[in-house]
C-alpha cells in the first residue's frame, strides 16, 4: 500500500506543545468519548431493534438521537440509594476507579498525522510513550479494581459473585490479549502507538498477523464484559452482578465506563491491526493526499465505528456462554494458541533475517500449524470431553453418574414422586398424609 503520508513525529516530540494546545487536546478527547458513548447507545438500540423486528428509539429528538442524553439526565435526577450495610467509602470510590482509567486509556490513541493548529505543528494524538500499548493494559487492569471493590463493598452475595467473576475473567483474557500484542511488537519494533501505525505504511498487520487479530477480537469481547461474555452482570443468575446495589450517577459511571472501554478497545484494534488513521487500500492508491491533513480522522472514525457495530451485532446474535466455557476458552485455547503463534512468528523472523527463502518458510509453517491443529482435534475427540464428565467425590451410582447430594448440597432425588391434579396424589403412589403430630396451628 503506497501512501504519501509525512514521516511520523519522533517520540521525543510529544510534550513540547504549549499548554493551551495540550488543554485543547484533553477537552477534544473527553468530548469525543462522551459523544461517542451517546452515539453508540443510539446505534445499539436502533440496530438491535432492526435485528429483532421492532422499533428502536424514535421519540426523543429526530430519529431518537437524543435518547442517550435523556437517559443520562434521568439517571442524574434519580434518587441515589445507598444500602445501610455497605462500606460507604469504597462504595462511592468504586465507580470512580472504574470510569477514570477508561478515559486515561484513550490518551495514547493516534487520530491522525501531524497537522498545523493555529500555526503550531502538532500530532493528532494527546501523548505517546515508549510502552504506550502497555498503558492500555495497565488501565484496563485498574478498571477491574473498581468492579471488584464495587462487588465487595455492596455486602451482597450477587454483587460479590459478579466482582469475583470479573476478576477471574480479566486475568484469563488479559493474558491472552497481551500475548496477541507480542507479534505486533516484533513486526513494528516498538510499543509506541505512533510507531506501530508508521510500521503499517506498506501493509496492515491484520494481513500479516491474522491469528493475532483473531485472538485479540475474542479477548476484547471478554475484556468488555458484554454478551456473549457478560458473566459479571448475568441477570439470570446475579440479578445485575457487581452493580446490583448501585443507582443514579454511580450506576451511570459504570455504564459510561463500559461504553468508553468499548470505544477504546475498538480504537486499539484499529491502531494495532488496521493501519490506524491510514486510508484503506483503494483510496490510498487513487488519492495521494488521503493520508495527510485532517482526512485521516475520517478513516480512523470509520474503522472504529465498524468495530463498534461488530460488538453490537454480536450482542444481538449470540447467547451468553456458561462460565466454565468462558474459562476453558481463555486458559485452554487462547493462551496455548497465542504462545505457539508467538514461537512461530519469532522463528520465521529469525530465519528471514538469516536469508532463508520466505516461501519455503511459510509452507513449512503452514504444514506445522495444520499438524498441530489436527493433533489437538484428535486428542479432544479421543478424550471424549472428559472435562464435562468429572465424578463428584463420594458418587455411588454404578452407572458413572455423580450423586446429586455428594457435594454437600441438599438436592432432591430425581426419582421423587411427582404430584398431578388437585387431589394431592403422587403419580403411581398411594395418598400421602401428614401425621397429626406434625400439624400445628402456628408457624411450622
UniProtKB/TrEMBL annotation:
- Record's keyword terms, sorted: Cell membrane, Membrane, NAD, Quinone, Translocase, Transmembrane, Transmembrane helix, Ubiquinone
Transmembrane portions of the chain: 20-43, 89-111, 131-152, 173-192, 204-222, 251-274, 294-313, 333-352, 358-379
Give the enzyme's EC designation. 7.1.1.-
Low complexity bias located where?
393-409
**Record's catalysed reaction(s):** a quinone + NADH + 5 H(+)(in) = a quinol + NAD(+) + 4 H(+)(out)
Listed InterPro entries: NADH_UbQ_OxRdtase_su1/FPO, NADH_UbQ_OxRdtase_su1_CS
Places the protein is found: Cell membrane; Membrane
| Any Pfam family | NADHdh
Q: Chief location of this protein?
A: membrane
Give the PROSITE patterns listed for this entry.
Answer: COMPLEX1_ND1_1, COMPLEX1_ND1_2
Region: Disordered; residue ranges are 388-444
Q: What's the protein's topology in the membrane? A: Multi-pass membrane protein
**The family this protein is said to belong to:** Belongs to the complex I subunit 1 family.
Q: How does it assemble?
A: NDH-1 is composed of 14 different subunits. Subunits NuoA, H, J, K, L, M, N constitute the membrane sector of the complex.
Q: What does this protein do?
A: NDH-1 shuttles electrons from NADH, via FMN and iron-sulfur (Fe-S) centers, to quinones in the respiratory chain. The immediate electron acceptor for the enzyme in this species is believed to be ubiquinone. Couples the redox reaction to proton translocation (for every two electrons transferred, four hydrogen ions are translocated across the cytoplasmic membrane), and thus conserves the redox energy in a proton gradient. This subunit may bind ubiquinone.
Q: What is this protein called?
A: NADH-quinone oxidoreductase subunit H
The organism of origin for this protein: Actinomadura meridiana
